[in-house]
């Protein structure tokens, strides 16, 4: 994911959980942030990405990439570095 913000295993697990997959629950702030990014329109996604680039990249990976959940699962399991 050259040029993309790094998504660590902790974040990958939190995003997976947010989207209803096996992972673990984020804290209160992080959970609300991930939910906000997931529901943002394109304009607000871009604004959120300025302050929270890794979180936005991880949520968009889950939402928009057909293999996004598999990629996040691999990151969460430590199989790949993002």
Radius of gyration: 11 Å
| pLDDT < 50 stretches | none
Largest sheet: none
Total count of strands: 0
Structural class: mainly alpha
Question: So what's the overall shape?
Answer: globular
Share of residues in strands = under 5%
Q: Work out the helicity level.
A: 55-70%
- The DSSP helix count reads 5
| Distance separating the two termini | 6 Å
Mean pLDDT: 94
Write the element-wise H/E pattern from the N-terminal end onward: HHHHH
Structural write-up:
There is one protein chain. This protein is an all-alpha fold and about 80 residues long. It has helices at about 10-20, 30-40, 40-50, 55-65, 70-75. About 30% of the residues are buried.
Pick out its properties.
82 residues; mainly alpha; 5 helices; globular
Write the layout of secondary structure elements.
Layout: H1 9-18, H2 28-39, H3 42-51, H4 53-64, H5 68-76
Outline of the structure:
This protein has 82 residues and is an all-alpha fold.
């Amino acid at each position: 994911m050259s040029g993309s913000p790094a998504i660590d295993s902790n974040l990958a697990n939190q995003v997976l959980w947010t989207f209803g997959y096996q992972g673990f629950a984020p804290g209160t702030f992080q959970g609300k942030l991930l939910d906000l990014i997931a529901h943002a329109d394109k304009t607000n996604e871009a604004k959120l990405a300025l302050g929270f680039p890794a979180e936005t990249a991880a949520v968009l990976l889950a939402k928009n990439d057909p293999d996004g959940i598999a990629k996040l699962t691999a990151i969460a399991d430590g199989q790949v570095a993002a």
